[in-house]
């Protein structure tokens, strides 16, 4: 540790860092060094490494040697500039900036003009022959130092400036005269004294030390922590500190400062795009006090500088092979580059830039593909809120299904359907949704629920429909009688407009302007390239022929999960399903099932047709039967009503019978109850019917010449014997249909791996299963012991307190659940090395999880139709990332 | 395969088998061979191996060569007896008996006198000069062959015998004359013709073939399958067939047959114990048609035979070094041994025999310890139903807590408490119990529930109290309004007597005589030996000072699980607990917790005192908070009542407030919800209070000179960060108390491993945990995805259909859950090789699971107090079994 180098010089004629040292020097420091190495003019300075931040944060003191190194670097800076730090005649002034390994805009803090005090300000005035400039710099320094280092809010100072301008009757800061600035400097120092109880530190070295401390401390300020959490940046990366000689854009009309992008960050168009301000320092551009000019204006006012800047930006884009976001300052006609970094861009621009740079030969296809953030794709596929819109956010829930939607609030599925028939757009607001709400969900623009997580019914169904959904918005309370919901003192009544943003989880009062999605050719191009690179298949979860068609459009290569129970909820089907459930004998049950068979068969025929040539995995009935019965409380209410109305005995008896059914099916923990293959074992006739419907559909299509290999999937297997018993049922039902049709259908029988025991005994299960599909939603529930319906009570506080980095229902927990996936794959392939293995939980469309799936050897992922493009891209990026490791 | 030997001779002068070949020859065949080897007179015969059974069952035909081998063996038998099979003048007759690898009494079938037909019967008559004997044998053969081979029930034949005896005016079978027997033989043959449509097979070889087939087929009859299931005998062991020359106990007054034990199987007393019948064949003794004489009577009637028998039984006991159950036949003064096997015995006898044999020097201590079935210990520790009592079993549930109890039926906990005060014994019958019923459970003799499995609330609490419990008795329906329960057409009203047997799950109408448990010195001796042998510790789960004291009496070496929530249910505590839960601020909650602190502290002081010198593991609050609130439906009912009565607004508001609390705590899957350490994270003040109570109790005791090292255990950890956060809370609360007391207490902070993720990431968790305790109840739930409260809907059919061999909540599932335990131990010890690891689920007292725990390297098991002796014994047996491997 003692021999470590903590400080790296850059600029002048000695640059010790380079671009590849981002982890150590931060993005800003590494890029400053790289620019210096390229011969681009950079004010000399030095970078204190991120390691210092880590050690300082951990031990609450600097590692030995750091301060000496800083002093030595400072001496070199004095030499390079031929100025002395703190010299009243010829003072060296510094900027102190943070710079983490990845760009964290606005999160960390900056101090400019450090080194000024009551004496050096006069030196600066003399040296530049510009007293106004010197005091302008001093008052700026006092403000920033107070804000960043001393924690005194800027508004304290701004108020005084405004008051002074009013006194003088002027509008712009630049119109303040030298005396006013001197007056403000004195005032500012008293504010510091009043707020801190101590005089403003006149000693430049003390200023520097305090500024460096402040930057390191700011690594752990709330904003920074929150930004890291949102962007999955580890807390232990730390930030570097860049100490750099000041240059001045505020030394007159031949000075200025600006920011620019090497391509348009909104559209991706190839053009130099930026703006600058004459006679200003950096923060003036950002603050928007004066309106900056477009960068082209520089061509007229300082043509040589403009040409140099164009040369530099081209050099930088060519060197970094990516669109750059640059900052520069012109000091009395001399150009200095203060920063270059990869420019942020919209999803749309990202696609265009990647495709065009490939065409220009600047990057190859793999690089182009790896440039698109998989999660950004969501944004180009769904309507989004106009970035310029002013939002009255009244609550925030989980971002459960991406995109934004506007509509009038309704509180029941029926109302949503009714309004929809009247041509009205609605947002369906429910405590939680159940399968009975599906019609209403389809009829509404978007869904907002109080309870439930990322894999709740509302979330899963909404994603399947490609509809925005905010789930688990625990802050609001619904009063169903009054038909309103409240959050604190905001009350939203039925018929009021709200806007929801399913990408951020925000609920906004009123009708906000939305931007429609544009499906661009560039997206097709990128996804085409991705398809050529990726090695795993991407399938879709789809329950209807319509879903299947959408999935094909998005490029799904088959269906990885067709949930047959969703077919049970049609208006004309649910009464038959209930008949089946309430049957008092196996015979009665079979009679009801016979009525369901042609309906299921019709669905399968449609899906098979839409997926011609691609595999279709059909999961047999999974949820507990009570999900198909009406709610107990509603039934009791109905009974009470019927009785008080003096209804017929037969009507009352029917409701009583239903209540009896609901009660006998009631479970304490339905998620761990009588569902999945357990139903297939206790009621084999249900699975028999489903298998017959599948094989009959395949036989019919075969007669038309359409060949389908159905993959019949058994849910919730925990022991190989369950699969063994059900496989016998499946095989004999299938054989019966094939014999009847005089036909032979190739089909597979496989299983979900969605319980820890299934993964742990996958070697045994693979003796019977012809394929595996990891149901990572359920597997996450049992591995963590988190019910996805109830986790809303503690999961948010887990994320907030950093106990879990991410919601494991959204992003696969690689350490725990992923370990079971790995064990399952290894054991399964031990028994059958050719075993086809996929994943069909919601994680199948989440980029990090798709990459994990690729790495552990899945054959395919399957996700909701609208996430298929994301999965295609992520699968390709996994290949590229492994290559570049 | 072709070279395999399928048939083994024994007796005469050629014996090919021996005792160690039990797997191949079955118990009976191996022991017959062994007796022949010892020079004990055995009628010659041969054994067809169990392998033949396995192959025959699998392929539905005999492996090639078997039948030839049988024929060759038959020829040798003919030679040895100097008789021919089927010879009308001098016929060889045979017995055909099954004999599996372990004794399966009554399960398999026997045919005697095989080889008789219309011709050989006359030969037998001539040869023995005893026509009556010959026809008596023939009619017996026809009956047994019909029963066993042809499936015609014996009663068909018995009816005719009874009719004939009535005609003749006689009482005993032996009083039937030869003509009557001839008449019966003809009648019997017509019955066979009528029932099968075919003549009785006269060909002896055909008879033999059919009998062998029948024995092999009987391996898979329902009785046999059920017995195997109950006794954990694998289906693929198969049975052997023993074909043996007949000897006759029914040849007159110098003939006879008997069974005997080398020690008293009921008490274990060392004395020759048995009975015999003169002039009878074996089944007469068993059938109880004539009353047999005690074995000593033989001393008078056939003193030489008696002396020979005594010699033989001593030889056999010495040879096999265990109590033997023998069968013999005396044919005209000559003694033949037909069978010897290890004798079944009562638990009491098992203990006495083991201890006495050790004292006699026949066996060593390890053998003595391994002779006791750990599960038998339950029987000597609890009252049991008098084996002679006649039982009117009206329903059967799960054997949830062993022992039997008698009492009047009550339907509420309050009634049980009230009756108890009146000195009346009750059985508490509930749909399911909740923590509020604990008082009533304690006041009743035993508990019967309709719902819930082996680890339901009722089961766990009853076992803890050592009270009999039958749980999950789904056959009965409670009508709480009428205060009665029904099962089919049996109705039991409040106040009616019932008896429950918690060891079998039976519910019996009326007051049955019980036998009180006798705690014998032999048990103490055996357990003392076991303690010296075993290498793992045995602790107890105990929640109160009383439980702790009981646990110590049973030899617990500490407490492995003290469930603090059970302390929250006292009459004066529950209102305070509710105050705490309903608190609207952290301050209000702390105020309620302050009231609870002294109560908890008192409990801990008591427990620590009872366990002085032994470790005490205290689990912080685990269940979801709604368990402490009243039931929702009851509250709604109460509200309705209050309103209709026109109660005060404040009363109504209070109930409404409670309803609000219940609703806000409602969960879809509470088992996977807001409980365990999740509560500790969202409400740290609760754990803080508990830790303070623990440490204060320890400080107080320290002042008295009592040193305690409390082990504080955090439940339901899934991620190391949960433990990390809570450990900080624990440490600072503990420090605060220690500072206050100016004292230092050594304590450990550890965690339950009861979620798959905890086991999978045990290496990470061991960075923070100072000990692990596997909570295998919860771990079983999440590993299988089985809710213990709901599994009753499908688990019974799983066991019945052989999908699972055993209820995984009763016997640890070694393949799945056990794999996680292994992973957890390995990973935990990777991080900390000295990590103390135990198990505190119900499996901690189940013998097979205790042995598994020993084998995977646990330091201790912990179980309910009454199972501690079982665990001590099983832990010792694990050591012995490993040594003998």
Structure description:
2 copies of one chain form a homodimer. Chain A is of the alpha/beta class and 885 residues long. Chain A contains 34 helices and 33 strands. In chain A, the strands form 7 sheets. An 8-stranded mixed beta sheet of chain A has the order 14-24-23-16-17-18-19-15. In chain A, helix 33 crosses helix 34 (868-883). Chain A is elongated, with a radius of gyration of 33 Å. Chains A, B: Pfam families: PEP-utilizers, PEP-utilizers_C, PPDK_N.
List the helices and strands and how they pair.
The structure is a homodimer of 885-residue chains.
Chain A: E1 7-10, H1 22-37, E2 45-48, H2 50-59, H3 66-81, E3 84-85, E4 91-92, E5 94-100, E6 110-114, H4 120-128, H5 131-150, H6 155-168, H7 178-196, H8 204-218, H9 222-230, E7 239-245, E8 256-261, E9 273-278, H10 282-287, E10 293-294, H11 298-301, H12 303-320, E11 324-331, E12 334-342, H13 347-359, H14 365-371, H15 377-381, E13 384-385, E14 393-396, E15 398-401, E16 404-410, H16 413-421, E17 426-430, H17 438-443, E18 446-449, H18 457-465, E19 469-471, E20 477-479, E21 484-487, E22 490-493, E23 497-501, E24 506-509, E25 514-515, H19 521-533, E26 537-541, H20 545-553, E27 559-563, H21 574-582, H22 586-610, E28 616-619, H23 632-645, H24 649-665, H25 677-682, H26 684-703, E29 710-714, H27 720-741, E30 748-753, H28 756-760, H29 762-765, E31 771-774, H30 776-784, H31 795-800, H32 817-831, E32 836-839, H33 847-856, E33 860-863, H34 868-883
Parallel strand pairs in A: 3-4, 16-17, 17-18, 18-19, 26-27, 26-33, 27-28, 28-29, 29-30, 30-31, 31-32, 32-33
Antiparallel strand pairs in A: 1-2, 2-7, 5-6, 5-7, 8-9, 8-11, 9-10, 11-12, 13-25, 14-24, 15-19, 16-23, 20-21, 21-22, 23-24
